[in-house]
TrEMBL record, chain A:
Belongs to the bacterial solute-binding protein 5 family. GO terms for biological process: peptide transport. One of its GO terms (cellular component) is outer membrane-bounded periplasmic space. GO terms for molecular function: peptide transmembrane transporter activity. Gene3D superfamilies: Dipeptide-binding Protein, Domain 3, Periplasmic binding protein-like II. It holds the Pfam family SBP_bac_5. CDD domains: PBP2_NikA_DppA_OppA_like. The keyword Transport applies. Keywords: Signal, Transport. Residues 77-447 form the Solute-binding protein family domain. It comes from Paenirhodobacter populi. InterPro entries: Peptide/Ni-bd, SBP_5, SBP_5_dom. This is ABC transporter substrate-binding protein.
Automatic annotation (TrEMBL), chain B:
InterPro entries: BPD_transp_1_N, MetI-like, MetI-like_sf. Keywords: Cell membrane, Membrane, Transmembrane, Transmembrane helix, Transport. Its main location: membrane. This is ABC transporter permease. CDD domains: TM_PBP2. Belongs to the binding-protein-dependent transport system permease family.
Length: 536, 306
């Protein structure tokens, strides 16, 4: 990522010909074959403007393309439907040069008009896209509607110009989000609200079959514009399969990758079996699990109390509860995120110190409060451990085990004094430190219903965040240092108690080929469908 | 008869209206904002308000309920918030699987329950009878989730006789139908046993025996039909119990029916689907009960519909 993005700074007004060090596919990879992936839940929609859960996210990635993309198995940007781009001196105008000869699954050639249509569509309030907010830096976003974005212009059939209203270091990442996928107008018009069930894109696979409640079948796009991929002829996603059943079927050779992962109850058993453990790929993910404390209400309006909670937690023990499938966290950003403050030590486990802080804050005997938690395993167990740690310093927290939607509601409304984020923890939309700020720690998310459940709003930090995002190069060391600084300052105010960063474990059948990174791809969860192959 | 039917149908519609109102109200007061769910975590306040207006969720409760009923009259069950599909389409595409599973479950519980009940009655008080009754007690009390996983593990994973979950062939149906049927078979065997014992004590059985009829003929021709009567009338009521059972059984076996749909929707608070499934289930239960009442006089002329 560094090489290419550093080069963008130099190449301001020049077209950038060879962008990233691109991916070298496995020389042993053979085309052909079909695999089976299972999921417990139905797939919601494959409309790239709408789909926003981790299950359909990677599926949409394989059916559609955006102007930008990621090098498989990594967080490095690479060109997608745009062959190259120019960035103006002031950092406000991107000119994207499209790849010629790219065809939609319906056979029509993709042009600049489709790019404009797609961006207009996703930002049009009629579309109800949950991702519309990501495009806020495009000129004319405030007036987005049926007339489209004034900032997006077609220069010629293969050139699109996008004007920003403010410099946005994350803009290329935004162009790599599913929400920025290019869709053909005629197909959207034909299917209307059901486009998500009849997706037409330019991606590596096209949708061949969708039997509701049973399966989806993806077929290889024979005319895919990236040479040589995908390898697989077909991918079948079988839905409605409990994770335990999916594991049993994998062991019988009927399933290649259980999409929901290894069920917690079976994890130790699988890892104890050398043959099975050798087929489990471990990787980091851009996730943090944390406890929010509502800073607008006593007793959490006192910073000493919030720090005391941070010091009360025995994170090592909490990690053990989930079979060590995580690493303890001391700050909001996960370690693999650019801008992670490596030298920051965080709050050490210190119950005695925590008690002193509580006494200083005027709570020598502790207090009673509530901890909201999502009711699916292992979250209630984790919450119990947190409850015990808090009890050790005199805080009596009663647990509110609720469905996800109810916890989110209580957090958003500000009625929950504490929330354990498990099952709803933040996973980055794109690999940039700014993505952990705005909605969950910034003032923008602190309003009624926002995802900033601490209701923490520090205007000075908000101003710094805006400054950091005005850099032209997202990986500018000065910018990353600013972000590190912002998160360390947040920890000083301690609206959160970060608990752990979850690791990912993907299990695969013996016949699955391709390097491990493809099975813990940071943007394609669970796996990168375009580059994996069958060995036999 | 016609008057009776008309009255029952009106009653049924009123019951369904009540069910729809209560469910709608419960989901309305539920502390979970559907708009937030649709809008996602990155949405701005403006996006949220916008979606709320488009869906009409900013309207007062009675307006929302009235509109729901109005759409219902046109067969429109609304659109799933999270699956982005018409609820009617989702339910319709899953209905055949659930009906098949129910039919299989009813067949299992009747065959198992009635047979074992008759055997227990004929061997009353002996070890076989006691063994069967303990077994039926276990069947009634065992959680279906456990029974399902146990059957799955033994017969599909260990022995490999049946596929591990899924849908499509007769082999796929056996284990889920058995899981669903075992619970009912426990009830049926106990009811069948007592019903049979009662009948065997009746005067007309004694008369039949006294006539010198052979034992098999007495049991099959005279006792069984009379003992079965009160049981058969139960099948309609069973549909209600099954509606609960399929939620569990379908989830365990990956059976693509309505129960699975309901379970997913409840976990994710997808209100239009919960409403739709509740109404369809309630309709099935009401019709089941009606059917049971209509059948009763056919099998037992002593019962009169009034």
């Amino acid at each position: 990522m560094k090489h290419w993005l550093a080069s963008t700074a130099l190449a301001l007004c020049l077209a950038v010909p060879a962008l990233a060090q691109d991916y070298t596919p496995d020389p042993n990879a053979k085309p052909g074959g079909a695999i089976v992936i299972t999921y417990k839940d139905d797939v919601a929609t494959l409309d790239p403007a709408i789909g926003y859960d981790w299950q359909n996210w990677s599926m949409i990635k394989s059916i559609f393309d955006g102007l930008m993309d990621y090098v498989p198995g990594s967080t490095a940007l690479r060109p997608g439907l745009a062959e190259s781009y120019d960035l103006s001196e002031d950092g406000l105008t991107f000119t994207f040069h499209l790849r010629p000869g790219v065809k939609f699954h319906n056979g029509r050639e993709m042009t600049a008009e489709d790019v404009k249509y797609s961006l207009d569509r996703v930002t049009n309030p009629e579309t109800q896209s949950p991702g519309a907010g990501f495009f806020g830096s495009i000129e004319g976003f405030e007036n987005a509607g049926p007339d489209g974005l004034s900032g997006v212009k077609i220069i010629d059939p293969l050139t699109v110009e996008i004007k920003l209203s403010r410099p946005d270091a994350t803009f290329l990442h935004v162009m790599a989000l599913n929400f920025a996928s290019v869709v053909p107008k005629e197909a959207v018009d034909e299917y209307g609200a059901d486009f998500g069930k009849h997706p037409v894109g330019t991606g590596a696979y096209s949708l061949a079959e969708w039997t509701i409640g049973q399966r989806l079948v993806f077929a290889r796009n024979e005319t895919y514009w990236r040479a040589g991929v995908p390898y697989l002829d077909q991918i079948t996603f079988e839905v409605g399969q409990e994770p335990v059943v999916a594991l049993l079927r994998l062991q019988k050779g009927e399933v290649d990758v259980p999409g929901d992962g290894i069920p917690p109850a079976k994890f130790t058993e699988v890892m104890a079996n050398p043959d099975e453990a050798s087929r489990v790929v471990e990787g980091g993910q851009l996730h943090t699990g944390y406890i929010t404390m509502n800073v607008t209400q006593p007793p959490f309006d006192k910073v000493e109390v919030r720090r005391a909670v941070n010091m009360a937690l025995n994170k090592e023990r909490i990690v053990q509860i989930i079979n060590g499938r995580a690493v303890p966290a001391n700050q909001p950003l996960p370690p693999s995120m650019p801008g992670y403050a490596k030298d920051y030590k965080g709050y050490a486990h210190d119950p005695e110190g925590a008690k002193k802080l509580l006494a200083d804050a005027g709570y020598p005997d502790g207090f009673e409060t509530e901890l909201y938690v999502m009711n699916t395993d292992p979250n209630p167990r984790i919450a119990q451990a947190i409850q015990q740690d808090l009890a050790a310093i005199g805080i009596k927290a009663s647990l509110q085990n609720l469905a996800q939607a109810n916890v989110i509601e209580a957090g958003g409304a500000g009625t929950a004094p504490m929330v354990w984020s498990g099952g709803m923890g933040w996973i980055a939309d794109f690999p940039d430190p700014s993505n952990f700020y705005g909605p969950i720690l910034g003032c923008a998310g602190a309003g009624e219903g926002g995802w900033n459940w601490s209701k923490y709003c520090n205007e000075a930090l908000d101003a710094e965040a805006v400054k950091a995002d005005s850099f032209k190069d997202p990986s500018d060391p000065a910018r990353l240092a600013m972000w590190s600084d912002i998160y360390v300052k947040i920890m000083d105010d301690a609206p959160w108690a970060p608990v752990f960063n979850e690791q990912r474990y993907t299990m695969k059948s013996p016949r699955m080929g391709g390097e491990d990174a493809l099975y813990v791809d940071p943007v394609s969860i669970p796996i990168n469908y375009d580059y994996v192959f069958i060995k036999e | 008869m016609a008057a009776y039917l008309a009255r029952r149908l009106i009653q049924s519609v009123l019951i369904l209206l009540g069910v729809s109102f209560i469910t709608f109200l419960l989901l309305y007061v539920l502390p979970a904002d559907p708009v937030r769910q649709i809008a996602g975590r990155a949405a701005t306040a403006q996006t949220v308000e916008n979606i709320r207006q488009q869906l009409g969720l900013d309207q007062p409760f009675l307006v929302q309920y009235g509109r729901y009923l109005g759409n219902l009259l046109h067969g429109d069950l609304g659109r799933s918030y999270l699956q982005k599909t018409d609820v009617a389409e989702l339910i319709w595409s899953r209905l055949p699987a659930s009906l098949l599973l129910m039919a299989g479950g009813i067949a299992c519980e009747l065959v198992l329950g009635l047979t074992l009940g008759v055997i227990a009655a004929l061997w009353r008080g002996r070890a076989l009878d006691q063994g069967l009754m303990v077994g039926s007690f276990v069947a009634v009390s065992a959680p279906q989730f456990v029974v399902g996983l146990l059957l799955l593990y033994v017969f599909a994973v260990r022995l490999g006789w049946f596929p591990i979950g899924g849908y499509g062939t007769f082999a796929h149906l056996v284990l889920p139908a058995l899981t669903l049927g075992i619970l009912g078979s426990g009830w049926y065997s106990r009811m069948m046993r007592s019903s049979m014992i009662e009948v065997l004590r009746a005067d007309y059985i004694r008369t039949a025996r006294a006539k010198g009829l052979d034992r098999a003929r007495v049991i099959l021709r005279h006792a069984l039909p009379n003992a079965i009567l009160p049981i058969v009338a139960m099948i309609g009521i069973d549909i209600g119990i099954f509606m609960g059972g399929i939620v569990v059984v379908e989830s365990v076996f990956g059976w693509p029916g309505m129960g699975q749909l309901a379970w997913q929707a409840i976990q994710r608070v997808d209100i239009p689907i919960i409403m739709g499934v509740t109404l369809v289930s309630a309709t099935a239960i009401v019709l089941g009960n009606l059917l049971a009442d209509l059948i009763a006089p056919l099998v037992d002329p002593r019962i009169k519909l009034r």
